[in-house]
Amino acid sequence: MRKAALAPIAAALAACSPRAVRYVAPDLPSRLPASVAVLPFDNESVSLKGPELARRLTAEALAARGFSSPEAKDVDEALTRLGVSDGGQLRAFDPKKVGEAVGAAGLLYGTLEEFTYQNVGFLRRRAVRLTLKLVEAATGERLYEAVGAESRGRAALDKKAAGRNFVDGVVEQAVETALGAPLLLESRLAVDEALTGLPRRP
Question: Is residue 173 a part of any domain in this protein?
Fold first, then answer.
């Protein structure tokens, strides 16, 4: 009975989360900004560390694609002077003013939609989902938008396996917390997925 009930869960964990490029400007390759400021993420998850991690990984991924980005601390200081203290406030500000404040031709807006670590013994689940949007600062025009998601998990089919599953999860979470990088692999894969459709700069 229990094995039959858990089988659909195991199958669901093995499946990939839905993800998609939502928009690409027709002339995007010719309009790629040389500099892109990665702005503080809007946080729809319950994690306090998740948005900071996703932002850092996004900046690293953009650098690998040939984009230059101002340092996060410089961006944050400029936004504070503009009156922005949280990523969720950015939508109320004119992109042109934001671009002028941070000194970048492009603005990368991010929303962390899910940052989940679930460990209940019989089921262990790790999931990250985010949306990234590149905007031309001077015009406020959206150039690129995509979703990235990564979900991994393990289901146990009996009490003994559930006990091992739970202990493994506790150790795993403790190590990641000590390193200050929870859900690092899932976050990196979600960022990479979201940026797959963004052309590299020459």
Answer: no
